[in-house]
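User: Quick sanity check before I run a bigger batch. Here is a single chain. Can you write out its predicted 3D structure?
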Amino acid sequence: QVQLVESGGGLVQPGGSLRLSCAASGNIFSIVLMGWYRQAPGKQRELVAFITSEDSIIYVDSVKGRFTISRDNAKNTVYLQMNTLKPEDTAVYYCKAARSTGRDYWGQGTQVTVSS
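Assistant: Done. Predicted structure follows.
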Protein backbone atom coordinates (compact mmCIF):
# COMPACT_ATOMS: atom_id res chain seq x y z
CA GLN A 1 0.00 0.00 0.00
CA VAL A 2 0.95 3.60 -0.58
CA GLN A 3 -0.32 6.49 1.48
CA LEU A 4 -0.49 9.97 0.02
CA VAL A 5 -1.07 13.06 2.13
CA GLU A 6 -1.71 16.38 0.43
CA SER A 7 -1.32 19.78 2.04
CA GLY A 8 -1.05 23.42 1.08
CA GLY A 9 -4.52 24.23 -0.19
CA GLY A 10 -6.48 27.25 0.87
CA LEU A 11 -8.13 30.49 -0.16
CA VAL A 12 -6.17 32.89 -2.34
CA GLN A 13 -7.00 35.98 -4.37
CA PRO A 14 -6.77 35.95 -8.16
CA GLY A 15 -3.18 36.41 -9.22
CA GLY A 16 -1.88 34.84 -6.03
CA SER A 17 0.18 31.72 -5.44
CA LEU A 18 -0.03 28.48 -3.52
CA ARG A 19 2.24 25.48 -3.22
CA LEU A 20 0.72 22.05 -2.79
CA SER A 21 2.67 19.16 -1.31
CA CYS A 22 2.06 15.43 -1.58
CA ALA A 23 4.02 13.20 0.78
CA ALA A 24 4.17 9.51 -0.10
CA SER A 25 4.79 6.74 2.39
CA GLY A 26 4.48 2.99 2.62
CA ASN A 27 5.55 0.63 -0.14
CA ILE A 28 6.64 3.24 -2.67
CA PHE A 29 8.87 0.82 -4.55
CA SER A 30 8.04 0.75 -8.27
CA ILE A 31 6.15 4.04 -8.25
CA VAL A 32 6.81 5.34 -11.75
CA LEU A 33 4.64 8.43 -11.87
CA MET A 34 3.19 10.99 -9.51
CA GLY A 35 0.74 13.59 -10.54
CA TRP A 36 -1.82 16.17 -9.62
CA TYR A 37 -5.45 16.10 -10.69
CA ARG A 38 -8.29 18.43 -9.86
CA GLN A 39 -12.05 18.29 -9.73
CA ALA A 40 -14.25 21.35 -9.78
CA PRO A 41 -17.91 21.20 -8.68
CA GLY A 42 -20.04 19.55 -11.33
CA LYS A 43 -17.04 18.63 -13.47
CA GLN A 44 -15.00 15.53 -14.07
CA ARG A 45 -11.62 15.04 -12.48
CA GLU A 46 -8.90 16.24 -14.82
CA LEU A 47 -5.15 15.90 -15.04
CA VAL A 48 -3.19 18.99 -14.05
CA ALA A 49 0.40 17.76 -14.26
CA PHE A 50 2.51 14.69 -13.71
CA ILE A 51 6.17 13.80 -13.36
CA THR A 52 7.64 10.40 -14.06
CA SER A 53 10.50 8.57 -12.40
CA GLU A 54 12.60 9.61 -15.40
CA ASP A 55 11.65 13.26 -14.89
CA SER A 56 9.33 13.52 -17.85
CA ILE A 57 6.75 16.21 -17.13
CA ILE A 58 3.37 16.91 -18.64
CA TYR A 59 1.03 19.85 -17.99
CA VAL A 60 -2.51 20.43 -19.09
CA ASP A 61 -2.61 23.40 -21.47
CA SER A 62 -4.59 25.60 -19.10
CA VAL A 63 -1.81 25.66 -16.49
CA LYS A 64 1.27 25.80 -18.71
CA GLY A 65 3.50 28.71 -17.75
CA ARG A 66 1.72 29.15 -14.40
CA PHE A 67 2.14 25.84 -12.56
CA THR A 68 5.32 23.89 -11.89
CA ILE A 69 5.51 20.30 -10.71
CA SER A 70 8.64 19.09 -8.94
CA ARG A 71 9.73 16.39 -6.53
CA ASP A 72 12.11 15.80 -3.68
CA ASN A 73 13.13 12.14 -3.76
CA ALA A 74 14.78 12.33 -0.36
CA LYS A 75 11.46 13.36 1.16
CA ASN A 76 9.25 11.22 -1.14
CA THR A 77 7.31 14.39 -1.82
CA VAL A 78 5.90 15.96 -4.95
CA TYR A 79 5.06 19.64 -5.14
CA LEU A 80 2.81 21.75 -7.31
CA GLN A 81 3.75 25.43 -7.34
CA MET A 82 0.77 27.38 -8.60
CA ASN A 83 1.27 31.00 -9.66
CA THR A 84 -1.02 33.57 -11.23
CA LEU A 85 -4.03 31.68 -9.95
CA LYS A 86 -7.38 32.24 -11.60
CA PRO A 87 -10.92 31.65 -10.32
CA GLU A 88 -11.22 28.77 -12.78
CA ASP A 89 -8.41 27.00 -10.90
CA THR A 90 -10.78 26.54 -7.99
CA ALA A 91 -11.14 22.82 -7.33
CA VAL A 92 -10.22 19.98 -5.04
CA TYR A 93 -6.69 18.95 -5.96
CA TYR A 94 -5.74 15.29 -5.68
CA CYS A 95 -2.35 13.63 -5.71
CA LYS A 96 -1.93 10.33 -7.54
CA ALA A 97 0.86 7.77 -7.53
CA ALA A 98 1.05 5.07 -10.17
CA ARG A 99 2.96 1.80 -10.06
CA SER A 100 4.55 0.15 -13.04
CA THR A 101 1.90 -2.58 -12.62
CA GLY A 102 -0.86 -0.07 -13.36
CA ARG A 103 -2.10 0.23 -9.79
CA ASP A 104 -3.00 3.78 -8.79
CA TYR A 105 -3.18 5.39 -5.37
CA TRP A 106 -4.94 8.62 -4.50
CA GLY A 107 -4.70 11.15 -1.73
CA GLN A 108 -7.69 12.58 0.10
CA GLY A 109 -7.62 15.88 -1.74
CA THR A 110 -7.01 19.48 -0.74
CA GLN A 111 -9.30 22.40 -1.53
CA VAL A 112 -8.00 25.33 -3.54
CA THR A 113 -10.28 28.35 -3.78
CA VAL A 114 -9.37 31.37 -5.88
CA SER A 115 -11.64 34.27 -5.10
CA SER A 116 -11.56 37.94 -4.27
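The two ends are 40 Å apart (CA to CA).

User: Great, the batch can go ahead then.
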